[in-house]
Amino acid sequence: MRRNLIILVLAPFIYLNQMEAQKTAELFCSNNYNAENGVVLKWLYKFVYAPSGFDVHRKDETTSSWKKLNDAPIVFQKAIPAGVIMDKEAKELYNALKDTEYESLSAMLRAFSLIKAIYSEELATLFGIRYEDKTAVNGQNYTYKISLAGQEEALCDEKMILCNAYTKTESLKEVKLTRKKEHVDITWLPEIYRYYAVDVYRRSSNDSTFNKITEVPRAIQKDQTLEYTEETIFYVDTSISYEENYWYKFIAIDYFGQQSIFSKEFSVPAADFVLPLAPINVRPNASSVNQSVRINWELIDEPDLVGVNVYGSSLAEGPFEKLNQSVVPKSTKYYEHTSVSVGSHYYKVATIDQAGNENYSGLTYTEVKDITPPSAPTGLNNMAEEGKITLSWAPNNEADLMGYFVQRSLNDKDNSDNKYVNVNADPIVETTWVNELAKNIKNKFVYRIIAVDSSFNRSLPSINSLAQMPDVIAPRVPQIKSVLADGEDLIIEWLANVDPDLAGYNVYRRLAKDSGNTVQVNVNLIPVSSNKYRDRRAEPGVEYEYMLNATDLTGNVSSFSGAYLAHIIKKEVLPSLKITEKKMHVKKKQLSLAWELSNMENLRGFVVFKEDHTGVMKPCTQLSENTTLKQTLEEGLHHFQVRAYLLSGSILSSEEISIELNSINN
Which of 124, 185, 453, 595 has the fewest Cβ atoms within 10 angstroms? Predict the structure, then answer.
């Protein structure tokens, strides 16, 4: 496909896609242009052709009923009849449609085919989208519609035409050409239902004839028609020389590929496009107090120089507005821009000559600063809670308000000379603020609010607000140093706490391994000056766990210290141990011993000791609760002793006994 066809095809492609939902085609009618009588119809169908074909219906002004003109459906022809001549491009499109399943036709192929059918009557006939009504009579008005074969419902709007001898349609209307230095801008009234595209012709002062300069006709899209204004540009001729004079003519091409008559000639003479020298040393000076800007410049005088125009914008990229009502004379070297809004301003100055050519200076910048501060914030309140102080205040109503700074100082007798610091680094836009603090901070603070605008002007401070967090911090956990027995009492000693608001201590105890029955030992709070307490109610022999906590002036209580074990040793009443029987069976050489303990309740066991040959008493039995012993002895002197081991750890010893066995005894 040729590239020019690709460019040209976009217009009907977009046009057909923009058809109303209920319309799938557009019908066009023309008097027969082939030197024959009758009417020629062509329709652009969204899907190019219909497999079932189309019917053409007609009615005249004397009847309201429709008459179907075709005997057989107008269908896509599966073969090119003999004698039909088409160019290569038309044949390729025809074959592409013929060889592609109808449901698989791409949007691009349909668009290419439709645009080619506008210029090729043969191709439109093969597609089944063209019909010649040769029965139409000159001088009669007819209305036509098309439908799918066998149906009455129209595929598009009906079209009326007066049957008559063919004459070329008139050319473009409302043509406007604007000469620029390197191009000519051309616009015209778009009439997309009267013609499809436009060819542009041009000649210069060196040419004797007009030459077509549009490689492909310029088609107008439907959306361009809807957005059309007198400033809309449909064609730009860039192949000009600014020193030449030019003339233009135009031809409109309808949907049957027929050309209109030539338009009249439009003259575009050469013009002075030599720009004047641009202004230099452009200097804007802003007065924030007067809200004005004085723009100064210097000029290089030229014979055709008229003066300058001054342009301004609040944005560097524009748009720029001309500030002066009339051209500033070249003898004046400044312009006073008054009632300037606060903010950034960009200026450029353009010289203008007698031909209206303008040449702009570079872009310059200045700023009119806002020097009016916001009003002081009002309604400042605070709410102190555990670990935080919440501030709130009434919002300011300045349009350029950027936010607020929260300022804080320590409270003293005279807060008027306090050193305040900003608590927030950047302005906040909210009218509430939470100052989170360590829970143990006891200071009283003074807060105030400063409003700041987008120019960083700061207001006077709000009225001060005094705040202090509630004391919710318990004293540090005290540490028990020792618990010692003193006679029948236990003395608990601890390390003194250093909390500045400490009120005193309480001592607690419980039976060892009994975590559920802790009782306070002291009746009154132990003062800060004391770090000892005497427990006079401890029972001897009972093991206790002692704990300690601290209380501050607000009533906050610390956690318990670690438990400390202690007891008063109970005096032990020891039972008596004595040997009650000592017998020697001489023949058997066997000693029999018996002993008794006056109280067996606390007994762990007995061990019998016997003196060895070195004179050291050593156990000859294991620990047991037996109170008798039988042992065979050898000849010689033997020494025995019984020892009782108590559960309390005490050891009782009996008296020593001596037994001598020799041959005389035998």
Answer: 185
